[in-house]
Amino acid sequence: MSSQSDGGGSDTPEGVDLAEGIDHQVAMVMDLNKCIGCQTCTIACKTNWTEGGGRDYMYWNNVETRPGSGYPKDWEEMGGGWKSEEHAERQPGQLPEKEEYGRAWEFNHEQIFYEGSDEPLRPMDGAEWGPNWDEDQGAGEYPNSYYFYLPRICNHCTHPSCVEACPRSALYKREEDGIVLVDQDRCRGYRYCVEGCPYKKVYYNSVTKNSEKCIFCYPRIEGEGPEGEVRAPSCAEDCPPQLRLVGFLDDEDGPIYKLVNEYEVAVRLHPEYRTEPNVYYIPPFAPPQHSERGESLDSERIPRNYLEELFGPEVNEALNTIERERAKVERGEESEVMDLLTTENPAKQYRLEVFDEE
Amino acid sequence: MTMKPKELTLAAALAVALVATTVAVPALVEARPAYAVPVHEGGEDASFASPGSQDWDAAPAATLHMSSAESGLPNASSTSVEQVDLQAVTTDERLYLKLSWADATRDTSTSDVREFADAVAVQLPVNESARPPIAMGGASNRVNVWFWRADGTSQELLAGGAGSTTPLDDTVSNASRYENGTWEVVLSRDLESSATNRTAIPDDRDLDVAVAVWNGSNGERSGVKAASSWHYLALGGGPQGPPYELLLWAVAGAAIVVTTLVTVEGVRRTRGES
Amino acid sequence: MSEHNTHDESDGIDAARRDFLKGLGAATAVGVTGFGLGQQSEMQSLEIVDDPIGSYPYRDWEDLYREEWDWDSKARSTHSVNCTGSCSWQVYVRNGQVWREEQAGDYPRFDESLPDPNPRGCQKGACYSDYVNADQRILHPLKRVGERGEGQWQRISWDEALTEIAEEVIDTVRAEEYDAISGFTPIPAMSPVSFASGSRLVNLLGGVSHSFYDWYSDLPPGQPITWGTQTDNAESADWYNSDYIIAWGSNINVTRIPDAKYFLEAAYNGTKRVGIFTDYSQTAIHTDEWISPEPGTDTALALGMARVIVDEGLYDEAHLKEQTDMPLLVREDTGKFLRVSDVPGLSTSADRPDQMFVMQDQQGSLRVAPGSLGERDGQYDPSESISLDFDPQLSVEGTVQTTDGSAQVRTVWNNLNDELANYTPEYIYEETGVGEQTHQEIAREFAEAEKAKIIHGKGVNDWYHNDLGNRAIQLLVTLTGNLGEQGTGLDHYVGQEKIWTFKGWKSLSFPTGSVRGVPTTLWTYFHAGILDNTDPDTAAKIRESIEKGWMPLYPSERDDGTRPDPSVLFVWRGNYFNQAKGNVALEEELWPKLDLVVDINFRMDSTAMNADIVLPAASHYEKHDLSMTDMHTYVHPFTPAVDPLGESKTDWAIFRELAAKIQELATEREIEPVPDRKFDREIDLTSVYDDYVRDWQTGEDGALAEDKAAAEYILEHSEESNPSDTDEQLTFDEIDEEPKRLLATGDHWTSDIEDGEAYTPWKRYVHDKEPWPTFTGRQQYYIDHDWFLELDEALPTHKQAPVLQEKSEYPLGYNTPHGRWSIHSTWRDNTKMLRLQRGEPIVYLNPEDAAKRGIEDGDTVKVYNDLAEVEVQAKIYPSSEPGTVRHFFAWERFQYPDRQNFNSLVPMYMKPTQLVQYPEDTGEHLHFFPNYWGPTGVNSDVRVEVEKVDGGGGNQGGDGQ
């Protein structure tokens, strides 16, 4: 590994801000125009990492319907992050309530199947909210309602406020790839990281009394496992429409750099939290609105100000660029952006071993 | 404020007991300097493992005044526990410390993301010859911490400054009870320890001690705690420092009675009886 | 294939750790080591961290998660549910148990310009392992001790179970009531060996095999009517080749999750994607334009678009002349096609001039239209051609001298033009709510696109007039000539009707070749009392169809005019009881007629709950089988990752052992062979096991004892995997190494598989000019069957839905679409899936409809009509069209408080046009064939009302609170 560290260093491409002390930064671009809310990523993550032992309620990866309350419920109203670009003072945050996550319901299968119960199959302790409770609901009025799906993992931020929040320094950012981890030996379950993360992507495990979070599937990207094979995070690799691109932010030839820095079509979720997430989104477009006479109008369905609320003002230029690039392809011209967003060349989609020789 | 007969009786009994104790052991009390924690020598037949053991009645208590630790964490200055009574007993083999404090809420669960449990910790210098910095010791002057939390967690820790807490093999035993709005926790350890990084408990010198308490339902954990300043366990024997008068103890006793009454009322209100 | 990794475990710690992980749940390990550095009791240094960004000194713990990313072996498998996915998975095994699964991701690419076919899968497939290890898994043979459906069981031995079933079967066959034995199992392609297991035994017993594709209303009747084919679709990869795609009621993003990529990525490939959905659906959100017709008005919308294409001359004239019946002449007096035999002087050497048709060329001469049934040898005859050596006129009106005088004639084209004239822009807006300009613009764009395609879904197919809807939408691709080329066509993906390896599967499933197939819709409705509850006209037509033998019904009518009740029902790989429409009648009328219901299952579904004997089946990760779909052109296997759990056995082993028990008892009792009343064969129970395991092709005894041998049999005997004209052959072990693309197509396909190209249908007709397998040999939009003429449906036309419930009483339409959370009822009860929903059945309501009734999100509501009421949770869905209750389907009965379900609100009704044979005498164009032609079990014309249930605050919790 190179010892180069600072974002302004000689090897780091122009415009890429790496955290001080980090050699390279893994990153992900998620294309919201390909997200169908199927939750295969959620399940893939869950079967890999969060089954049993206090982890059942956790969704390191979740997919939420937007507009909507998300997971945990109304997480955007819970604070966290930084007060200014200097990353000196953190914004206070709150701990979500158990019901805001939703509990991992247990069901009465056996009573019904084998014990003659005439109850319906139900969560045994009732259910009031869950991680996907407002699925498909969105906002607006028929026929001009709107919604889309937003998949979320830990953003492995360049300025992670969860790391700074921990009085024990039990969270850290890996030197070689910038993955943010909670040291499961060192953590004492104080939950300042849970408060401090504005995306509410650190979870408290009441069995281990530790906090846990998305690990960007580091054992997979490291090529661990019996077959020694490098694999992208399971949320990406198992995604049926393949809406995620995975690589390094500072790999100039990689898909992330091109979409984020070169074409600026991938934008951050809630940049105003100032943690500088390393998960980026291709913002959603949608079919136009209808008039009262059932005619298609030349009028956008998803309000721009809503998208700006989510992704900041950069979303406008990103959407304009996507529209221009789509028009190019329609005219029969080449577009690297469009190529990157299709899976005609899957080798381009996951670039994980690019810095291995260092 | 009205009290039920049962509660009144209890408060009165407490007051009487306190006064009786002060009267019965004037020599000891007279010998108490400001930061000294008297150490009672437990008899062979006495039992101190349980906080409810009557043998504890013979051990004098020191009242440690608590204030919010300066941790820089959110809400660090809003801790709720103001004092802890500390009793110390040695037997031939073990040192027993009993910590008692009023806490209107019994918080024993850490099984929800918003649940924190009540806890107490005793801090001792690893090397008793020099007093470490009060906030978890220092890099070159470490502390041992005996940590008990109401969710069943018990740990023996080593620390050399804030954020450096490191678990050791736990050789500390604990027992606890919660009655009438008061936690009573006994922590004990063998006097001898062969392990490194463990406080050697002297029999001829005083040993510095500090205490911290967390009220779980107030969100207290980590550095958000009520902490005492350094005191010392009077293991060296003989009076040290300026004497205190009987009168002073009588005042303290009266204060405890008032606190108890207030606490009882507090518990009552918490239960929604008023 | 089960491939075992050998890894170095020199100190044994790894193995111990894994045992630990498996035993206690992975995360518990974290708890144990959570404070674990304390184990280093002689610790010298403190854990001090200066700045955890980039420099963290204590990283050894990271091995914790590395050790969780570990397994002992893996095996290739997939899921044997009624799903078109056919996705290849690797199943990971740790400590002898299935740990998890991940898409195999190794479908070989055949066209580098298309999106990568990998990975195929969805969230359900990603947690099938839950079922493998589930507490509710059926582990032992069970016998009912309470009432059906009560969930009161007695555990019995395999021998007891098989003996009881065998005795019932022997008694039934001896009484010559073998056609009262029914076997229901859907969809061979998802696991042909398991399909064949029971079908093979039922066939040997002279029993009845049930159709499924028509029963589930997946069959689009418009396709056999117009194109003479059960359906044939492009594989989903072909979507990417289109310039213009209309997703017409096909909620791809929910029901075709593994294929959605091709639709989504087409956006970046210059394709315009239009969605036609009544709601702003999960697919509509990812279209470039969404149109929202009123429910049930698709036919009008399609015909309105067709009018635009015709009026504005945007149609493909050459295609219409050569490939369709548009130039054929129709007599105005009878409404029948003008036959060659009607016209003196038109000469033909063919046998049946009465089944040949007439065009008029540019010179005004009458010409014989080539390729009709009159000159063909049966349905499929590649030696004939429809290519024309003259130029017919599309538009003809005049008088023709006939053998019986003269007749006024017009072309089909002229008749069609008259019909289309009704669908003015004003009418389209009034009827469908789609804008006058918008639908015209879409029609123009569709017609002008170089390659345009329609993806057609169940949204259209579930209506009573589904045949008219199909035909109207098909008309759009026909008018524009969008057929027989990559990127074109009408892809109907509803269920999966056919299997690539047809012949191997068929001869394995039905070794005698004498098959009692029955249209399940008719069978169910008849035995559940439909005739007593049907309007007299329809009832008369149903009777006529049965009497004329157009549609078979079993048990057959006996010589004395009586018809016995069905008595024994085997159900495997399906959930007949839960999924039946008209299920109130099914439960009350049909079920009591059955003396023995046997369900073979890995899980307790509603059919198992209502069975008499339940046999524990191996899970999908515990058996050998094959998997295919018409969404792609690959074949890949099931292989066992672990042994069958508990006492469960593979489907093949279960039916084989039942055959053995029948043979054993029949031999003991010296049961004589019974002559079959319909086929030239005897049913010999004393050899039924020998016949079961014998390879009937080679005559080798005992060759098919194991499921893997049965899978190999299928591959060997199918054109697709073992083409007759090459030495190439796909073997089971090869497809276990890697999924393989099929090598050729058999007769039941309409194009060949070509290297480097996605499969696209209809090339045999459009390019090779073989006659379409219709009466006229052309795409046939005009049907001159008497019933069609009588019902005024000779041409596609828009009709109002039948009134099943009065709108005044039941103001809301009731729709039960396929959802994303289950494949039919499988996974409906899965804990992981339910946690990502609301844990119980829900209905989607438009906010205004809800507000009017004082209903809020999360309330418990009663959905009811004249048939039943069900209690469910209300979910407010702003994207719903007002006036519709959307109850995503297939919730199990035991998920409702009163054990009714989504289907309880659906009555039994059938459309007479789907009971016909055509031509009436031979039926070569339309005749009953299971899953090919038969009445569909439609369900979308139903109306309901919704009411808040007082005191119902949503989910109250189930047993065990």
From TrEMBL, chain A:
Transmembrane segments: none annotated. CDD domains: EBDH_beta (cd10555). SUPFAM superfamilies: 4Fe-4S ferredoxins. Residues 26-55, 145-176, 178-207 form the 4Fe-4S ferredoxin-type domain. One of its GO terms (molecular function) is 4 iron, 4 sulfur cluster binding. Residues 77-96 are annotated as: Disordered. Residues 83-96 have a biased composition (Basic and acidic residues). InterPro entries: 4Fe4S_Fe-S-bd, DMSO_Rdtase_II_Fe-S_su. Pfam families: Fer4_11. Keywords: 4Fe-4S, Electron transport, Iron, Iron-sulfur, Metal-binding, Repeat, Transport. It is found in: Cell envelope. The keyword Hydrolase does not apply. One of its GO terms (biological process) is anaerobic respiration. PROSITE patterns: 4FE4S_FER_2 (PS51379). The keyword Kinase does not apply. GO terms for cellular component: membrane; periplasmic space. Its cofactor is [3Fe-4S] cluster; [4Fe-4S] cluster. PANTHER family: NITRATE REDUCTASE BETA SUBUNIT, RESPIRATORY NITRATE REDUCTASE 1 BETA CHAIN. NCBIfam families: DMSO_red_II_bet. This is Respiratory nitrate reductase beta subunit. It comes from Halorientalis persicus.
UniProtKB/TrEMBL annotation, chain B:
GO terms for molecular function: heme binding; metal ion binding. GO terms for cellular component: periplasmic space. The keyword Heme applies. Gene3D superfamilies: 2.60.40.1190. CDD domains: DOMON_EBDH. Signal peptide: none annotated. SMART domains: EB_dh (SM00887). Keywords: Electron transport, Heme, Iron, Membrane, Metal-binding, Transmembrane, Transmembrane helix, Transport. It comes from the Archaea. The chain crosses the membrane at residues 246-264. The keyword Membrane applies. Residues 53-226 form the Cytochrome c-552/DMSO reductase-like haem-binding domain. NCBIfam families: DMSO_red_II_gam (TIGR03477). This is Complex iron-sulfur molybdoenzyme family reductase subunit gamma.
TrEMBL record, chain C:
PROSITE patterns: 4FE4S_MOW_BIS_MGD, MOLYBDOPTERIN_PROK_1, TAT. One of its GO terms (molecular function) is molybdopterin cofactor binding. Keywords: 4Fe-4S, Cell membrane, Iron, Iron-sulfur, Membrane, Metal-binding, Molybdenum, Oxidoreductase, Signal. Its EC number is 1.7.5.1. Its main location: membrane. It catalyses: nitrate + a quinol = a quinone + nitrite + H2O. It is found in: Cell membrane. One of its GO terms (cellular component) is plasma membrane. Its cofactor is [4Fe-4S] cluster; Mo-bis(molybdopterin guanine dinucleotide). It is an enzyme of class 1 (oxidoreductase). It holds the Pfam family Molydop_binding. InterPro entries: Asp_de-COase-like_dom_sf, DMSO_Rdtase_II_Mopterin_su, MopB_CT_Nitrate-R-NarG-like, MoPterin_dinucl-bd_dom, Mopterin_OxRdtase, Mopterin_OxRdtase_4Fe-4S_dom, MopterinOxRdtase_cofactor_BS, Prok_molybdopt-oxidoreductase. Residues 72-136 form the 4Fe-4S Mo/W bis-MGD-type domain. It is a peripheral membrane protein. PANTHER family: RESPIRATORY NITRATE REDUCTASE, RESPIRATORY NITRATE REDUCTASE 2 ALPHA CHAIN. Belongs to the prokaryotic molybdopterin-containing oxidoreductase family. This is nitrate reductase (quinone). It comes from Halorientalis persicus. The lineage of its organism: Archaea, Methanobacteriati, Methanobacteriota, Stenosarchaea group, Halobacteria.
